[in-house]
Design goal:
Layout: H1 6-34, H2 38-47, H3 52-65, H4 71-108, H5 111-117, H6 132-144, H7 151-159, H8 164-190, H9 194-213, H10 215-222, H11 225-254
Helix pairs in contact: 1-4, 2-3, 3-4, 4-5, 4-7, 4-8, 6-8, 8-9
Subcellular location: Cell membrane
Membrane topology: Multi-pass membrane protein
GO cellular component, one term: plasma membrane
Amino acid sequence: MPQLSKKTIVAILLGLTLILSIGLIYYSPTIIKIMSSMNNFRAFIHSTGNWGPVMFILFQILQIVVAPIPGEVVQVAGGYIYGVTLGSLYTTIGLIIGSAIAFYFTRFIGRDYISKLLQKKKYKWMSLIQDEKKFSIFLFIFFVIPGLPKDLLVFVAALTSMSSLRFFTILIVGRLPWIIASAALGSTIHMQQYSIAIIISVIAVIGFILGYIYKDKMMDRFSNVKKTKGTSHSAKSKVNLSINKKESLCTKKGE
């Protein structure tokens, strides 16, 4: 089977991005209304009949690529509409397709734009990890912890030399536990099993709080920030020592 050329891949990615962007702009008021509640979203998905799973997967793709929709909302909705098994399956399919679009778009087309975006103070911490092995560990940890900004890290990963296989393995293994947990949460809410829903929610909130609190410490551990600070401090000490020596010599000469 002949492989697609880089030019063909770029054309496909540009076409998909254009279609998604136009669709999002045109249907954004409808999307906001649909996502305003679980029941509205469920009613819309069911109204599309056999196309329901396709529409749900499309929402998951939009959430990753362009839409400002929290991922956890779509994941919980998957369980609310389809139950744990199918909800997790459809969410995972959308996650893989959406992440593939974001990953390859950045790698082949949007590298300069994403690089400039990461220079902003809000996102600069994401670009501090230079070592690929450390970044892989950091990426996995971030994917596992619920509530942290995962989707932008897909774009960041595309800027590294990480292979596609390695990235998607980390993505699926890291995200799958909370995809299943989110689907279980949605399913228990729909079945009015609120005690189980509360337990899952509490665990998720604790995980998010711990992740948010220790995010900076994780950054220091996996990046070169500490080394840089240490080097600067060491250099500063050497400069001060050199100045003190010169002052001492000048004093002796004066005597």
